[in-house]
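Postdoc handover notes: sequence design on the structure in folder B. Input tokens:
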């Protein structure tokens, strides 16, 4: 048998498929990030986790890499710039970050910091997001696309922000907003820059297709767009209608859907222009997908096109349609959110333990345990003994039948709990034998598809699916998931992941696969005394803010890490996760009142001599200390395994 290599690990987890050559595995078997390309400096994720634990930070950790934000922004910007040149397009391109994709201040600010090199606007989809956009843009100037539901205050705020050197494009998402914009402009005596969002008949593809099409929530129908032109003409404001916008959904997996939308959108643009609106911006919305499984297909976790193809289709479709009517080429805006931020964040957590549904039996299962063994056990033992390549199918069906029969006998009181346990043990041992036969077959018969999942081990992990990867629970979204170390060692176990919540949905049992979806993940043997860290990758888009406090597991510690020439990496920001005190506050509990209630209850118990003073002291100490703790399990032994017993000084390191 060939020895396990790093390349085998890269292939097994399809790192080159989803990792865009930014992620790889080093000779130590650790996942690394190479933001500037191979050989141009690397960040070792396992090393970082160890160093953070030594600094006293607990897992789970959300690691953010600003270098990867820059990489994504440059990919999108450069793709458009290249296509603009190639097609001799007369207008320019402006990427806009939809703040909803990740509102974290450090993330938005880090992206804006690159705007010297790559200009970037912001998109706000609500009043709070508008306030963020105005604050951040007031320092540097730039474009803010104002989307979402608007009231009078939203519109007036956006209009007045023009005086701060910000170009606010107010998009009419619902027809009712038109009257409010006209009123606000008159009241403030200001000229708004107005856009309309068209409701396209063309729909996206993938899980978020319903954001487009006739029944979509936002956007104006053809009738409403025509009425808009008439109302603006009447108000003497048609010269302020400068932008056409559409958005047909997130994670558009098929290039065909994008092409259709662009054809329809460009026609609307040309018609509106010819009706007298001096349009100069064409905002093609978001939807540029991320290849989470690396399969390059139109599967929902993938996409069948590259960023460069996307840019080519946008530039080409707009130019081709507008050239027919000699309409000037507009500035193209895209609101690509997911593609901009998904790659930059990795969630790392530790495995706490493991459950095997079928523990290896300490006794020889081929021998009866008693002389008067019930027939059902005797029969199952025979099946177990005789499993072979020739009869594995028959053996499986027999074993299932005998397990069923035994259960009926238990319900009727014919066999007892010990005998039921023996049946369980024999059944799982038989299933393992059968699996060992079929896993090497070229084709696994349909009957056995669920067997591997049944035999899989459960790895209990220190995180919450609901807090950190809510889309995995809500829409069965797939994220690349794998160990971040020990990858120079063959993973010999098949497992699913269970989180800390007391919710049976708090699990991950679907994993990316190049050709399919895997029910189990290849993992290493878990050793109680050795930390085992897993990573969920590409979690930078939408997950944090959609995450919730199920079971009161709060925000995780987030660390911003940058590649550094001299010190390998530099920590830019540490954003501490929630403490128990903080999450209790979110649900209206006052920790000091809780403590005082506890003390009163203790006094009653002490008075009735149900408790000793010493016991009460321990309880109060734990209660008080817990309030300041992280909401996740603090694995003090992890820090201990990484910390030397005597703390070294820098000269010794
Ligand atoms: N623009 C609008 C109006 C949106 O609603 C969204 C999100 O669905 C986006 C942009 C961002 O989309 P994506 O993250 O798929 O690029």
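Designed sequence:
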């Amino acid at each position: 048998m060939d020895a396990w290599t790093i390349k085998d690990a890269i292939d097994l987890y399809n790192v080159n498929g989803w990792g865009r050559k930014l992620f790889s595995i080093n000779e130590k078997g650790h996942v690394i990030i190479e933001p500037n390309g191979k050989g141009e400096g690397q960040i070792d994720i396992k090393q970082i986790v160890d160093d953070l634990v030594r600094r006293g930070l607990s897992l789970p950790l959300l690691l953010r890499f600003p270098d990867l934000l820059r990489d994504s922004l440059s990919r999108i910007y450069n793709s458009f710039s290249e296509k603009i040149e190639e097609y001799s397009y007369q207008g320019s391109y402006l990427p806009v970050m939809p703040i909803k994709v990740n509102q974290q201040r450090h993330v938005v600010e880090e992206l804006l910091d690159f705007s010297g090199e790559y200009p970037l606007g912001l998109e706000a989809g609500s009043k709070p997001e508008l306030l963020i956009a105005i604050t951040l843009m007031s320092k540097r100037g730039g474009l803010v696309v104002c989307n979402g539901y608007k009231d009078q205050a939203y519109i007036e705020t956006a209009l007045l922000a023009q005086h701060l050197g910000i170009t606010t494009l107010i998009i009419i998402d619902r027809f009712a907003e038109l009257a409010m914009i006209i009123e606000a402009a008159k009241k403030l005596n200001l000229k708004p820059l107005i856009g309309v969002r068209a409701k396209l008949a063309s729909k996206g593809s993938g899980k978020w297709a319903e954001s487009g099409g006739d029944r979509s929530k936002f956007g104006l129908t053809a009738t409403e767009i025509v009425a808009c032109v008439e109302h603006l003409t009447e108000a003497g404001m048609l010269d302020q209608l400068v932008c056409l916008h559409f958005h047909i959904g997130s994670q558009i997996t098929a290039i065909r859907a994008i092409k259709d939308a662009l054809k329809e959108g460009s026609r609307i643009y040309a018609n509106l222009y010819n009706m007298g609106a001096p349009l100069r911006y064409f905002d093609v919305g978001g939807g540029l997908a991320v290849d989470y499984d690396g399969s390059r297909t139109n599967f929902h976790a993938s996409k069948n096109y590259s960023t460069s193809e996307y840019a080519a289709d946008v530039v080409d479709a707009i130019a081709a349609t507008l050239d027919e009517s000699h309409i000037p080429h507009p500035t193209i805006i895209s609101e690509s959110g997911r593609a901009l931020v998904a790659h930059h964040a990795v969630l790392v957590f530790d495995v706490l333990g493991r459950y095997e549904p079928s523990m290896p039996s300490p006794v020889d299962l081929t021998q009866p345990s008693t002389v008067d063994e019930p027939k059902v056990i005797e029969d199952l033992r025979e099946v177990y003994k005789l499993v072979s390549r020739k009869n594995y199918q028959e053996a499986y069906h027999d074993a299932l039948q005998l397990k069923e029969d035994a259960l009926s006998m238990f319900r009727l009181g014919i066999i007892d709990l010990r005998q039921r346990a023996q049946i369980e043990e024999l059944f799982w041992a038989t299933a393992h034998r059968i699996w060992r036969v079929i896993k090497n077959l070229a084709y696994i018969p349909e009957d056995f598809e669920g067997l591997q999942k049944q035999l899989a081990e459960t790895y209990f992990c220190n995180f919450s699916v609901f807090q950190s990867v809510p889309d995995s629970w809500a829409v069965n979204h797939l994220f690349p998931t794998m160990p971040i170390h020990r990858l120079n060692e063959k993973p010999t176990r098949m497992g699913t992941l269970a989180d800390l919540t007391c919710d049976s949905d708090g699990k991950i049992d679907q994993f990316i696969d190049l050709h399919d979806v895997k029910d189990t993940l290849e993992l290493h043997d878990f050793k109680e005394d050795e930390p085992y860290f897993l990573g969920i990758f590409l979690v930078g888009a939408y997950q944090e803010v959609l995450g919730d406090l199920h079971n009161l597991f709060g925000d995780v510690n987030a660390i911003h890490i940058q590649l550094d020439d001299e010190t390998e990496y530099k920590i830019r920001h540490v954003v501490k996760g929630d403490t128990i005190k903080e999450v209790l506050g979110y649900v209206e509990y006052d920790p000091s009142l809780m403590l005082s209630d506890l003390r009163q209850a203790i006094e009653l118990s002490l008075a009735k001599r149900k408790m000793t003073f010493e016991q009460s002291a321990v309880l109060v100490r734990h209660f008080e200390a817990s309030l300041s703790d992280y909401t996740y399990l603090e694995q003090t032994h992890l820090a201990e395994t990484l910390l030397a017993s005597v703390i070294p000084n820098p000269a010794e390191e």
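Context for whoever picks this up: Residues 263 and 457 are 50 Å apart (CA to CA). Don't rerun without checking with the PI first.
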